[in-house]
Design goal:
The structure is a homodimer of 216-residue chains. With 216 residues, chain A is an alpha+beta fold. Chain A folds into two domains: 132 residues, Glutaredoxin; 54 residues, Antioxidant, Horf6, Chain A, domain 2. Helix content of chain A is 28%, strand content 23%. Chain A is built from six helices and 13 strands. A seven-stranded mixed β-sheet of chain A has the order 2-1-5-4-3-8-9. Chain A starts with 13 loop residues before the first strand and ends with a strand. The mean pLDDT of chain A is 95. Chains A and B meet through helix 2, helix 4, strand 6, strand 9 and helix 5 of A and helix 2, helix 4, strand 6, strand 9 and helix 5 of B. Strand 9 of chain A pairs antiparallel with strand 9 of chain B, so a sheet runs across the interface. Chains A, B: Its EC number is 1.11.1.24. Chains A, B: This is Peroxiredoxin. Chains A, B: InterPro entries: AhpC/TSA (IPR000866), Peroxiredoxin_AhpC-typ (IPR024706), Peroxiredoxin_C (IPR019479), PRX_1cys (IPR045020), Thioredoxin-like_sf (IPR036249), Thioredoxin_domain (IPR013766).
Chain lengths: 216, 216
């Protein structure tokens, strides 16, 4: 039984990290955050993942998105381990904070438990500026995440947010590809919102709901 | 507050679908299943997603994996909508069953709720033959999923399962790339399990946990 899921507010816990201690809502304030857990320091998949996060850091930075890691080791362990991470992934700098949760008090509250390991899973929540979970990946310890998919999903959320959720992104969408207009938007409103125009697909139902437009 | 998460058993609900009615555990038995919800019939992102699922069907089939869709419309609506799906995505055939949940009784039990829409989210659970959730994507209605990532994650789970979770897959892993040996496996055991050998990365900590091997 998890603590939180899509749409829930992340609890405002006070956390100890490799950089400084803070309350989660202070960290989340005014930006989007990628909050991710990993099973343990000095373990192989985690080392590749945190290295990748460090290497992709500029991608998150130029989108104004913060990173925040977490595992059930203490701060000193995290700091020692960072040397391994940076050595294994050349070009990676771990500048983002990593939360220490040595007593496993935080992971049950954040839906970040691997049932087989009884430790942290590879959970990754994208948290909005309102401190609510917008999207989650819940992977077990055996499966390293895909940073390109994290970025793609983030780009979709940012694009939808920029357009007040009046658009959505189709399957396998990538930035610069067309988006669809949300069903809640009437054709009249769509003409005002999207002066560049939109194309309505001709489908057997003739319901006119598949409206594609270019917002890039 | 979600119904279920990683490691939980999917409840053995009796469901009505576009093909026939069954109990979930009977459907899950003896194989892996991709169980996914979509916000609504005759809506744009869902049409692209279910079309993609149909187009990728052979990929799931040759892995011995079943597909099972769900939304809060009735069976007749699903059947009418399938004509649109197949028209929009040429080459796609929707042969997998889609659950009808017109009274929204199932989605709260399966952690498939979009908090903004108060209807189904784009949740996708990969369910093991033991009827437990192995991995989940929880996306909101604005963000279409990525079928390549679903397949990649599935390949990782199947590979780990084949090797009794003695291996795991690194960040951004793809089939045919090296895997890592799990920390629970000693070097002595690893030499027996992986006669092809493995390479241990030389990292500053000298802890010897980063062991890569080729199992493809």
């Amino acid at each position: 039984m998890p603590g939180i899921t899509l749409g829930d507010t992340v609890p405002n816990l006070e956390v100890e990290t490799t950089l400084k201690n803070f309350k989660l809502h202070d960290y989340f304030a005014d930006s989007w955050t990628v909050l991710f857990s990993h099973p343990g320091d000095f373990t192989p998949v985690c080392t590749t993942e945190l290295g990748a996060m460090g290497k992709y850091a500029h991608e998150f930075e130029h989108r104004g998105v913060k990173l925040l890691g977490l595992s059930c080791d203490d701060v000193q362990s995290h700091k020692d381990w960072i040397k391994d991470i940076e050595a294994f992934t050349p070009g990676s700098k771990v500048k983002y904070p990593i939360i220490a949760d040595p007593n496993k008090e935080i992971i049950p509250q954040l839906n970040m438990i691997d049932p087989i390991e009884n430790g942290p899973s590879r959970a990754l929540h994208i948290v909005g500026p309102d401190c609510k979970i917008k999207l989650s990946f819940l992977y077990p310890s055996t499966t390293g995440r895909n940073m390109d998919e994290v970025l793609r999903a983030l780009d979709s959320l940012l694009m939808a947010s920029k357009h007040n959720n009046k658009i959505a992104t189709p399957v396998n969408w990538k930035p610069d590809e067309p988006v669809v207009i949300s069903p809640s938007v009437s054709d009249t409103e769509a003409k005002k919102l999207f002066p560049q125009g939109f194309k309505t697909a001709d489908l057997p139902s003739k319901k006119g709901y598949m409206r594609l437009t270019d917002v890039s």
